[in-house]
Amino acid sequence: MIESGTFLDGRAPRNRFTHSALFSAASLSVIASALIIYTLASGTIRFFEYEEATFFEFISGTDWVPNGRNPSFGIWPLLSGTALIAVGSLMISIPLGVAAALHLGEFASPRSRRFLKPIVEVLSGIPSVVHGFFALLVISPFMQRTIDATYFNAASAIIVVAAMILPIIVSISDDAIRAVPREIKEAALGLGATRWEMATKVVLPSARSGIVAAVLLALARAVGETMAVTMAAGSVAALHFDPRLEVQTLTAYIAQVATGDIPPGPATDAGFAVGSALFVLTYSVNILAVGATRKRLGANRGKMASLLFQIKVKLSMILERISGDIEYNLTQSNPFIPTKYDLFRRRKEKVSRFIVASSLFVGLAFLLILLQTILETGLAGIDLQFLTNFPSYRADQAGIGPTIWGSLWLITLTMLFALPAGVGAAVYLTELAPEGVLNQFLRRTLQNLAAVPSIIFGLVGLYVFSRMFGFGLSLLTGSLTLAMMVLPMIVVTTEEALLAVPKSFRDAALGVGATRWQAVRHHVLPNAVPGIATGAILSVARALGETAPILFVASLFSKTAPTGIMDGFLALPIQIFFWTRHPKEAFHDLAASTILVLLMLLLILNFIAIFIRNRAEARRSW
Amino acid sequence: MVMSTENNTISVKDLTIKYAEKEAIISVNLDIQESGVTAFIGPSGCGKSTLLRAFNRMNDEIPTCSMIGEIEWRGKNLLSDEIDPVLLRRAVSMVFQKPNVFPTSIYENVAFGLRIQGIKHKSKLDEIIEESLRDAFLWDEVKERLEDDAYSLSGGQQQRLCIARALATKPSILLMDEPTSALDPIATAKIEELIQALREKVTVVIVTHSMSQAARISDQTVFLYMGELIEAGETKKIFSEPEKELTGQYITGRFG
Fold this sequence. Notes:
The complex is a heterodimer. By secondary structure, chain A is an all-alpha fold. Chain A has 23 helices and two strands. Chain A has a domain of 274 residues: MetI-like fold. Chain A has a two-stranded antiparallel sheet. Chain A is globular, with a radius of gyration of 27 Å. Chain B has a domain of 170 residues: 3-Layer(aba) Sandwich (Rossmann fold), CATH 3.40.50.300. Chains A and B meet through helix 7, helix 8, helix 13 and helix 14 of A and helix 2, strand 6, helix 3, helix 4 and helix 6 of B.
């Protein structure tokens, strides 16, 4: 029975509780960021407390020799290695990626788009440790034969990193290209532009801020990429730009610390200083990318543009003088007879569009060769014994039984932590406090968290969860680390799912006196479940394939599966990493078999996600 | 309606246009005089824009759209495969519903149609651009700031820029798809005035939602309803003594 005056009571106490619970979930990103900064800062300070390390040498030195009697910590060799890999891979992936996006957005028929877009999606779903396997065992031998490269070389890493960042460039550029208003594309066609002219002279310039953002995000990813680079480019920090030789990147050094190849002392703590440098670098690139996305059409003009205009005018006047005056008769040209120039335009149209279309087939070819190699080397090794035995040191008896269990434990625990936190944060940010300075701050924090290179999470896991909290090298440490990493992804996908629920549902509930939380709880969340589930499954896939964050904490050998959250654990990607680097070739086959198992699991997860999405779309009545 | 196929007419013959299976234009026969201003009127969804977009093959850009029939002009069927729409659109240019300037300078907007034809000479470009902007009544307002962003112009100015851009390629026919529907009354008046001045240089075919606009600016009026041509003829006659009852009902505001 409702008593009169109830409406004067203010918010119900239960609501206040949920409100603060959701707010806490949203603040977790701030805590995670604080932990990252704390880990990096304290580790860096520890590093500079050693006699061997000085700040000046660190930022200006050109020798990186962490071991030995006279260690030297000059970061430039690591920076040059990082730059070589990043710039090299961008040089491949920018032209390919923009061309592919242009083809998908402007030239491909809807049918071929449906066929081509999944290539990009599959490529983006391949874990970096798999790319590392491919780089070291397939591309590197090829490089050794053709360009006289060493066993570990930058070139192989550049190629796989290019393949990894290609999907970023394609999908973000594609979004930018598709956001170009139809009206201005029609304007170009209506003036007699060919589709190619429309695409290059109108669409690309209009989409340029999006494309710049895509390139910057790809750059941040390339700089932060760890596993493939560690596996293929080697561990010799040397200041050179020769792709045929071994280089070490910032991330690869941290990974080297993680894998225990570095003795304790300044060399290990140097990993934190390098982590700080990496963090600052990727953070800056990310800030630039966000700035580029914000820039609107036609912005950034003004003095600079007018100056450029003056220069252009001068240039064309000079050109005119050189080339002499070609008489051009424009008085009502014949619409039926092409001029010489029109014939040239037709040829240009055909050739350019062919080139642009073929860019996607480069991606497809890469994917097919990768899958074929792995099937060829790995399929034969998969049998019941392989799936159940422990990873023995004798290749013919080795299996991945405890490893599979380790990975399953890991992703289950990760989701147990990350899913409620992520969904709660998303509900708070989109439904309960969708505006204000605090909201903006939390969003910015999440965005930045999403851009932190995965190996840095590894440092946090090691330093905070494992040592400070005393969780040790356990499942708990591993899953907390991974949960931090997938949190932004879950928040973003949940927000999308919530925003897809029509506003009228909320209004209807609020209109009959529901509180905001009641409206969300009973009318928004139930309708957003398929979207949230899809996002969650994709996050599971991400956590399953990630190597770098758990590189510090996962075990390399165990005879048994974990039985509780404080146990040590094996994980599929770590197993792949370990076996790929094994000197004996028999273990490479085992790595390939493990990759196949991992890819199968990822495939199943993706199918489930697609199934849920499709079923929800079919059932949706709004 | 004059049923002749002389050189100075554009003849639409038994034209049917479909989006997938849906017919948007149903066996339309029509002669348009190649001089003066012709207006297409009719209620929303009657197919007037679809018909307009057939003349420079803009319908080709919509994947589901198919056209059956002929549009004869200067001895050619504009819908046949041998016609290259890219070349055709220079001679049959188009101005759209919303001002759709490119995100670049005023100068480059007008230069676009010329540059893609390979005209690179600054002096030639300057000459044509000035002429086009004068023809579009825009020169005096922008001559001091040609390198400014086209988005810095008002809506009406942007639409006149679009007209200047379309005029730069020296078209014979200018198609206008509700060019004033996004503009305020003052900007609309200016465009209408401009259309009156353009009739000397170019044949104008305009789609309009406003009957009074059709009455003010056109010589010929074509009334379409549910994809069919109901009546076509001299504007004065259509508005004073329409032959069909439906036409009368529409122009008196009974529906639409």
